[in-house]
Amino acid sequence: MDITRKVIAITGAGRGLGRAIALSLAEQGAVLALIDVNRTDLEVTEAEVRSRDGRCALFVCNVASEPEVEATFAAIKNQFGVLHGLVNCAGILRDGMLIKVKEGALTEKMSLAQWQSVIDVNLTGTFLCGREGAALMAIGGEGGVIINISNIARAGKIGQSNKSPTKAGVASLVVTLG
Predict the structure, then answer these.
(1) pTM exceeds 0.85
(2) Which stretches of the chain drop beneath a pLDDT of 70?
(3) Please, which contacts does 149-156 make with residues 24 or more away whose CB atoms are closer than 8 Å?
(4) Are 8 and 84 in contact (CB under 8 A)?
């Protein structure tokens, strides 16, 4: 598939897998809308994209915030006029046991804040960006593709009672959106 000059948004583009995907797509000629909550990380990715003669624009956005996501995708439309693809890669990890018991006594519980922060970024962020990206692609008239990143954690993993449900939710969301 030729993605030369195709506009592709990538969430979590500031580092890790999001950055790696951005660099690969840049080398293939895509025009990138790089999205992350951390401007400094985005600027590092931008420098690496440009060192490969890639084109990109930066969008600082908390994907868990509906107003920020809506504003970001409106800005992408204003800057590029169209969106051809979205890679939902943003995610956080707040490992912790649901509870800890030592010598018959409850010593710790996962806080609601620890649970909610992971749900908000990993699952709600994927939903919000998917919704806004799909809307732009639908009205753009050129079609498009959304790739949602999940992993084996969706099957459940000790210490990830907050992350595993988000990854299972993302995997399920792919089916229902499709």
Answers:
(1) yes
(2) 152-157
(3) 149/17, 149/87, 149/88, 149/89, 149/91, 150/174
(4) yes
